[in-house]
Structures are given as C-alpha cells and as structure tokens.
Amino acid sequence: MNARLDHRAPLVFDTRELGRRPGALKRLSRSVPAPKDLGIEVIGVREGATVELDLRLESVMEGVLVTGTARAPLTGECVRCLEPLERELEADFQEMYSYPDADDRSRFADTGDDAEEEDTLFLEGDLFDLEPVLRDAVVLALPLQPVCREDCPGLCAECGARLEEDPDHHHDAVDIRWAALQGLAESVSDGEKDNAPRERGDDSQEK
Length: 207
Description:
- With 207 residues, the protein is an alpha+beta fold.
- The chain contains five helices and nine strands.
- Strands 2, 3, 4, 5, 6, 7 and 8 form a seven-stranded mixed beta sheet that branches. Strands 1-9 form a two-stranded antiparallel sheet.
- The longest helix has 19 residues, at 176-194.
- It is elongated and about 85 Å long.
C-alpha cells in the first residue's frame, strides 16, 4: 500500500471525478517541480526544474490506468570532454493503480508471483502518487553515455587537454612495439662499454 498521500503534493493526483465507472476518461496537464535525485550520476533533471506532464486517466475494472508523457530539461556533462551539456527529455509511461480492495479480490486467485504483487501500485482513496512512475520513466529514458556531440574528440589521455580546442595536439612518444627493442639496444650498448679493453697506460699503473 502507498504511504499516506497529501493531495497538495505536486505529483499526487485525484481520480474522484472518474468514480469507478469502467471507461470513464480524464485528460489533464500539469507543470511540477522535479523531485530530488531525478537522474543518474552524469546527467539528470535538476531538482526544482519544471517538468511538464500530459496525463490520460482511464477507469478500468481493476483500478485507474495512467498513461502519460513527461518533458523536462536535462543538465549534465559530456563523458568524453567533461564539458557541461543541456538536453530536452521526453519520456512516455503507463502504469496501473489498483483499487485497494483489488488486493482482497486477488487472494481468491493466487498466482504465486510474489514479486509482481510487491510491484503493484495502489490508489489511496481517490489519490495516487506519480513520483515512482515518473522516476522510473525518466531514468530509463536517459542516455547512459551522454556526449556534447557524436564526434566529440574528448580529452588527451596523457595530459587531459581538450582535443577540440587543439586538433593537432600530440605527444612525441616511442612506438610501444619498438620500446622493448630500444631497451635491449641500450643494454647491449652499455655492455660493450663495460667490456671495452683498457688502455696500456692503465695496465702499467696497476702493475
């Protein structure tokens, strides 16, 4: 069951006008402030940003079927160059809010699916809370790897320079395929120096 709902909360909606008449329909639009933590680590809807909701409430035998679209501004950062980015999000969703006594009726037809029962959302009186549905819809619609543009070159792996600002940026480096051979050559060169014959003058002094 839902926690006790406050009808004044922005994401709580009243279905009283529908009654329990299957087929009764209500459409509504509402602008609401985004709740906290509406997003993922790299991108999301800033808390308090305006979320535009278009909803369709339909009374059915089991409860109220809610179908809707949410539109909201996204803020985040490009995963390649770490520059700030902004996007517009549009997310569609549909959820059934069951009547409280629907749970009683379902006991006579036990399906054995406990997970499905736990995920069921219920009306509290004539009210339902859209926040969990909105949160799931927005998170699922977010890009997991947001980029400022598809061909963003990102940052230099060695020094972190932004490659878009300096397309010719590079570092002189030995090809990794030749690094081992170069080390071997240096070792041989050092060995040859150690084994070089000493001058006769040095030998006479030792004697």
